[in-house]
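Q: I have 100 residues here and want to know how they pack in 3D. Can you give me a structure?
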Amino acid sequence: MHNTCYKKLTASFTSIQNDLVVNNSSRKWNCTMVLHFNCPETGKPFETADYSISDNRGIVTNANGDKILDATVMINSPCPHCGNLHKYRADKLACPFSPK
């Protein structure tokens, strides 16, 4: 997720902050926004809002000058394509505001 997406995502997270459950000791967030994923086993896409954000180091600026979310996103339910649980780097996920 990069600059434009970061701004939209920040605004969306602000608007749904009452839906977030924040556990400060583990820095784990349970979110209600639907995100787009690709199964690393099959390459097939899927969407879910059943995920958690952990290892959240916040927004950082990468070597290209883009602002990215430095965190891990984990799906909480088995992947619909392979049945496994997957972890993704937040900055490698598709922007949830991009056209499908």
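Q: Anything worth noting?
A: Residues 3-92 form one domain. The chain has one helix and nine strands.
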